[in-house]
Prior knowledge:
Elements: H1 3-25, H2 31-38, E1 43-45, E2 52-56, E3 62-63, H3 65-78, E4 82-85, E5 91-96, H4 98-109, E6 127-128, H5 143-154, E7 168-171, E8 185-189, E9 195-199, E10 211-217, H6 222-236, H7 250-253, H8 255-271, E11 300-302, E12 309-313, E13 319-321, H9 322-332, E14 339-342, E15 348-353, H10 355-364, E16 377-378, H11 392-406, E17 417-419, E18 433-442, E19 445-454, E20 467-473, H12 477-491, H13 495-501, H14 503-512
Helix pairs in contact: 1-2, 1-4, 3-4, 3-9, 6-8, 9-10, 11-12
Amino acid sequence: MQFEQVKENFRSQIPAFAEKARAFAVGEVDRKSYKGFSGGFGSYAQRGETGHMLRLRLAGGHVTMPQLAFIANCAAEYGVQRMKITTCQTIQLHDLTAQQTAELMEKAVDVDIVTKGGGGDNPRNVMVSPLSGFTADEPFDVRPVAEAAARYLLGRIDEVHMPRKLKVAFCNDAADEVHAAMRDLGFLARRDGTFDVYCAGGLGPNPKLGVKVAEGLRPEDAAYAIEAMIAVFCEHGNYENRAKARTRYLQETLGAEGLKAAFAAALARVKAGPDLALHFEPWTPAKAADGELALPMTRVTAQKQPGLYAVEYHPAGGVLAGEAVRRLYETVKDFAQAELRLRPDGGLYVVNLTTREAQAVLAATPDSAASAFERSTSCIGAATCQQGVRDSQSLLAACIAAVREAGIQDGALPRIAVSGCPSSCGAHQACGMGFVGGVKVIEKVAHPAFTLFLGGSAAQGAEGLGTPVCTMLQDDVPAFLVELGRTVQASGRTYAQWAAQNGEALRALAGKYAK
């Protein structure tokens, strides 16, 4: 289905959403029923009476200037003051009324944002390494392939009923920031211009690393692999038990070798059918130069295109204030080639900037994280999310404040990832240090608590899932991090250097705070 047809089909469905949202707002539809309906449109009611969230699908986290203008307008005209960059490279608009949600859903279509399938049992936002196309050592730019695949998947949402959601990612670098090898379906770029394909991975309860099911897949054949994954999932996935209706459980029902065989057979069948070859055009920004100007390189990355730079902006916890978005848009709106790339850790890059433009963006984003630790990741948290157990945002804010007050230097603490519940929306299981919200019962009294995870890594060749170490009371987590930072700082080494030689000491220090 062509993208224009997808857009018009979705536009025709929005009145039904608007009516359901109205009915929910006045109490004619219960919360559970509304969630089952609204998720398919990319919207959920927030916890309590705090309004609605709308999730903007942005393939690969790619935000064009018209799309940024739309998002800035949401703040200016609709008063949206809280937006969240998610670990799946979307932007969530928060605290909307039912009417605003429907109106913005329709206006988003005008700038090629289709929120269909942003929640529920659907293919989710396709992810891409955020600086794909800009780094000198990449095998090739995977973004055009991923965006073509995203359009293909949008055309399939109304045509297939899967047991649960399907997360797809395209990776072009060794760091694998998008966790492609841990997704339901991941494409990892090879030096020969093809992909290795992984499937049936996932974070959350019973996490799994993906299984390599294909090698040397041509980029134009990505849709065949997507159809093969859908076929295997629909044939072998669990439609009865929602808790086990994710692709990662196929590793248990089929085994790794059985999964490889099933995928290979499905891929052969699909390739014998209709032509699904993707069509895409490689894209390269024009070269630019406006003189030699000094740039602080702490938030600046030189692109492989001479004279162009990417500037990082990371608001605390990935939460964008409406005024910050408006300020950023006003700064870049007239820049010839500027666009945004959302990071899976809650930050973003403004790309294709000349040196003068990079200086302007740096000046317009003074609230960006000041250290690696402050670039930590958090989900939206239980104060907003219906499924949340703990308020991950408030924990991260308390930790940042404590570390700043203690004067811990940059490099003495790692980036952490915080999830408010076991669903791992903060990707705590893929991070070297993560925390997940829960409850600790002490003398029959329940206390807010977080479990510490250590050892997660998405880096190619070093993939691993973090494992639980101990549970701390929420109020003790900042003190643990401050003591850890002071210990590392006193050693004269960075956290990475210290932790590599002091694993037992790290666990012993954590144990002091365990409950």
